Amino acid sequence: MLFKIFTLTLSRQKYYPLLNIYSIMKKTYLTLLAAVALMMSSCMTTGLGTTSPTGSNSNVWGNVLGAVLGQVLLGGMTYDQSGILGSWNYNAPSAAFTTQQALTKAGGTATINNMSSSLASNYNNIGINRNNTSFSFLNGNKFSAKVNGIPFSGTYTYNSQNGEIALKTATETIKGNVTKTEKGMGLMFDSKQMANLLQKEGKVSNTAAVQAVSKLAKSADGARVGFELTK
Q1: CA-to-CA distance for 56 and 103, rounded, in angstroms?
Q2: What is the tens place of the pLDDT at every residue in 138-165?
Q3: Same domain for 10 and 39?
């Protein structure tokens, strides 16, 4: 009996360093499970089959992990402090949910696609494009930006642990979230913050389009809307 206890103690000491590795692997495994769930949701809502590994279905496996990382803000992947530095230009509309649970409840990838499509239409009505909408994050926590061609600047704070960012201008503080997307960085806001960004900073006069964008962020619990930015 004493020998068994001694042997067990030695085994625990020997393999204790592996526990941290196991913990990391467990987190990765859970993320992959979420990715598979989103892939299955995408297949069901878009009509893609699940048996063929070729053709359009091969893109699902190739992009689904990026979809998980870009569509879930808390628990997804974000940038470290130095990762957001540099100049980022508008590339496409971006939508996300605060948690995996909120995304699943709202309808998964199909809902994200519908929101992005509506955003694209309203951004087009506003006139937002790569040439007139950009964000530059500098050392010293300073930023400069253009939205709809209107420049503004100030300071920012960024929490690399959860992707929360606050842009402090001369007149207000706009709070949002940063996440990694398939092509670059997602910069997203709730309904009120997005409306402030477009109207107060971007001086957008198309009230109907701003209201439509803001309404999308209210369409489901945890929804966020904004921009996908690329360098």
Answers
A1: 24
A2: 999 999 999 999 999 999 999 998 899 9
A3: yes
